[in-house]
Amino acid sequence: METRDGRTIPKPTRAGRTDRATKRWFDDFVVELRLQDVPGDAIGDAVASAREFLADSGGTPGEVFGPARAYAASLDLPRHKEPRSGMAALLVPTCLGLLGFFAVAAAVSSTDGSVQVTLPGLLIVLTGLALAACAPLLLGFFVRGPLWRPAAALLLVFTLQVLIGILARDVVLFTLPALPTALTGGLVLLSTSLWGQFRKDTAPDPILEPMIAPPPSSFGLTLLGVLGNWMLFLAAAAMGAWFLLR
Question: pTM here?
Answer without folding.
Answer: 0.66
